[in-house]
């Protein structure tokens, strides 16, 4: 799951880099004439600069908002160079370490997560429909380590405080309070009735009906 997310992040970074360079004739001509090594070097150089990261973030947000409409501007050669560059960046351990550093930056990660929120949401929906993913998720939840971690989280002070806040906010809702009152009223009514009253009443009615039917039979005789 982490590696798949990392691949998507790198791919969007590279796409954003190409989109940001499409506005310049000189940049587009260099992209067409440049080879795989030039593309790789350009990607790494941009990732190492703060201005480059900001430009990539802006371009990726625009690309996500337009549903990838500008991707049609890329030629077949550009697309192939990008694919090779992505593959090389992902398989190079030194590049992976650098990418992890960039992705874990709070500001960059937060803004980038917003840019790809739609794609990630759809990915989660697709995974939840996958039988293999469902089985793996169930196996993970049954893992003793996961259960221990979940219990520790439920016992933690921050979680309890958050739960308390949610309950307090829910109690302020008129609809929630009305539903809660109806539930409590129903419970009190059920508890106030003597146990077995409805059962004995049903039996007496059944017995009375039998006697009436028996009496009717005797009259016919």
UniProtKB/TrEMBL annotation:
<feature type="domain" description="Spore germination GerD central core">
    <location>
        <begin position="78"/>
        <end position="187"/>
    </location>
</feature>
<keyword id="KW-0732">Signal</keyword>
<keyword id="KW-0449">Lipoprotein</keyword>
<feature type="compositionally biased region" description="Gly residues">
    <location>
        <begin position="204"/>
        <end position="221"/>
    </location>
</feature>
<protein>
    <submittedName>
        <fullName>Spore germination lipoprotein GerD</fullName>
    </submittedName>
</protein>
<feature type="signal peptide">
    <location>
        <begin position="1"/>
        <end position="23"/>
    </location>
</feature>
<feature type="compositionally biased region" description="Low complexity">
    <location>
        <begin position="194"/>
        <end position="203"/>
    </location>
</feature>
<dbReference type="InterPro" id="IPR041262">
    <property type="entry name" value="GerD_central"/>
</dbReference>
<feature type="region of interest" description="Disordered">
    <location>
        <begin position="186"/>
        <end position="221"/>
    </location>
</feature>
<dbReference type="Pfam" id="PF17898">
    <property type="entry name" value="GerD"/>
</dbReference>
């Amino acid at each position: 799951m982490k590696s798949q997310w990392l691949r998507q992040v790198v791919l969007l970074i590279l796409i954003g880099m190409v989109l940001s360079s499409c506005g310049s004739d000189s940049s587009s001509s260099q992209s067409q004439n440049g080879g795989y090594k030039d593309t790789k070097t350009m990607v790494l150089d941009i990732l190492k600069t703060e201005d480059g990261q900001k430009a990539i973030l802006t371009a990726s947000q625009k690309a996500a908002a337009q549903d990838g409409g500008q991707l049609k501007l890329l030629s077949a050669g550009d697309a192939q160079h990008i694919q090779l560059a992505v593959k090389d960046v992902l398989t190079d351990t030194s590049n992976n370490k650098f990418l992890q550093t960039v992705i874990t930056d709070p500001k960059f990660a937060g803004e980038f997560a917003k840019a790809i929120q739609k794609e990630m949401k759809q990915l989660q929906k697709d995974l939840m429909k996958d039988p293999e993913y469902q089985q793996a998720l169930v196996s993970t939840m049954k893992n003793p380590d996961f259960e221990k971690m979940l219990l520790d989280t439920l016992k933690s002070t921050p979680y309890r405080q958050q739960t308390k806040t949610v309950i307090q906010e829910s109690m302020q809702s008129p609809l929630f309070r009305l539903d809660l009152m109806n539930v409590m009223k129903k419970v009190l009514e059920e508890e106030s009735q003597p146990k077995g009253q409805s059962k004995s009443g049903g039996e007496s009615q059944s017995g009375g009906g039998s006697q009436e039917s028996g009496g009717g039979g005797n009259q016919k005789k």
